[in-house]
Amino acid sequence: MKCENCNEREASVHIKQNINGVESEQYLCPQCAAAHQSHYSVGDFNQFFTNPAFGKSWLGDLLGNAGMLSHTMPQTTVNSAAARCPKCNWSFEDINKTGLLGCPHCYEHFESSLKGLFQRIQRGSQHVGRKPGRRGSEHDNVVVTGSVSDNNAKYTDLKADQDQTTQNERETKELSPLEQKIKSLKEQQDEAVAREDYLAAARLRDEIKELREGKEEDQ
Amino acid sequence: MSWYLTCGPEQDVILSSRVRLARNVDTYPFTGHLDDQQAVELSQKIRDSIYAANSKMPDLYRDLDLTELTDVACEALVEQRLISEELLHSPNKRRKAASRVVISNDESVSIMIGEEDHIRIQAMTPGLDLQSAYKQAEEIALLVEERLPIAYDELFGFLTACPTNTGTGMRASVMAHLPGLTHYKQIDQLRRKLDRMGFTVRGAYGEHSKAVGCLYQISNQVTLGLSELDILSDLRSIIDQIIQLERKARQKMQEHSGTKLEDKLYRNLGVLQQARYISGAEALERISDLALAIELGYFTDLDFKTIKKLLAAIGAGTIQQSCGEQLSADQCANHRAKKIRDILYKEITNKE
Prior knowledge:
The complex is a heterodimer of chains A (about 220) and B (about 350). Chain A is mainly alpha-helical and about 220 residues long. In chain A, about 50% of the residues lie in helices and about 5% in strands. In chain A, a hairpin with a 2-residue loop joins strand 1 (about 15-20) and strand 2. Mean pLDDT of chain A is about 65; it is low at about 40-80 and about 140-175. Chain B has about 350 residues and is of the alpha+beta class. Chain B has two domains: about 5-245, 2-Layer Sandwich (Creatine Kinase, Chain A, domain 2); about 260-350. Chain B has 13 helices and ten strands. Chain B has an eight-stranded antiparallel β-sheet with strand order 2-3-4-5-1-8-10-9. In chain B, strands 6-7 form a two-stranded antiparallel ribbon.
């Protein structure tokens, strides 16, 4: 698919917005997506982190005082219901201003904006490290150079792998068919993110969301 | 013995290694959004979860409520890197109500409660030994994760207040002494190079531009999209290269400036042995030169343990705490000079 903005390069970024209640979707190439992002101010985030000298709220002050926020930010982050995290009432604007999220739920609520941010400030948005309550991570079957490798055996030992298999089996058994479907979609989504196929990842995310919402209505 | 007085691998370039893990308790907002009651309740819960691990915990760890400590005692904890400035000088009073720290007896592990994240676990080791530091921090993380619902997401990993920590929540760093690379003005280039690879170099003391005493903190920036061990091994291989470069630079320095350098380093020891008034920054610069002299083999009756003792003794908070009273900057400078003279005298006479 060609980029909807330049009609030249291949589209690989999916942008979904809600402006004053009107939903819109765009498929863009990385270049146009970057321009799009910086237009909507979140692009300055990276710069914000490397400029502690300007104090915690300089970005917010800069944009707010110039009246730029209300004009250029998608309204979804300014005054619609989705603009604030339902758990802590924190907005994406607040995150931009302070550099901090309000509560763990903010991650789910601002997921798509955060994914864009993580593409810029991190190595993608898929966690590959260890999980709570477990040593090491499956990703870490690598031999580390130097003296580090001596201590590494602990993380790759068979017992840990077995524990994990049993845990996975148990989880699968306890899940309803719908939950299993969500789980498998989530895995596909993770894989899509890992191979940087964000288009597919975005579709899978929407599909998961629909299934989840359907599930809640059933209950 | 306190960990920071002992020596470790590659001690001539890497003074210490540190790993920090950030964790938050699900169902509570991040620290800045807690109300007073939640803050105190959560702080207690976290503390209890650590102490509940086994019956020996109270013997191995001590638990300090920062609201009950004097300013000087708090400052000394910051100097020993057991707590962060952030935990201490939080502008948000709600946080302060719940600020505490749990410290292991040898002071190598500290668990800050009520920092930017609910839990900040930090483990330090002498020399270059990131793996041991990580293992120690992971042990504590496991304790907490087994007993408390930790904010974790399959996609984003461990959820932290700041998106620069999301994922592993891990910051691994080493404190490097780089007088050679500093002398040949290589630090800016190193900084740019590492920045592109996702690592940061900054002065360990003083403001970000100038590093006092050629001491630098090198740490990972990326926390999401790489596993803990990937980050550690990347950092490790970078540090290995820096160690080689630094050793080469020192050798070159010695070859090129021969007697002049030797003279400077001997005079430096003279000043440290005789000074009656010395500021914190001057002390760091001079201890850095003393370390270089020891590394180049000039003073055989001194070793890196001397350096460690000196570094641990010169902080304003530490000096005031050992004097048991609040001192002016001038008084501190006077006490600092005496402390340095005493340490050097003891080290040199004991070995003769």
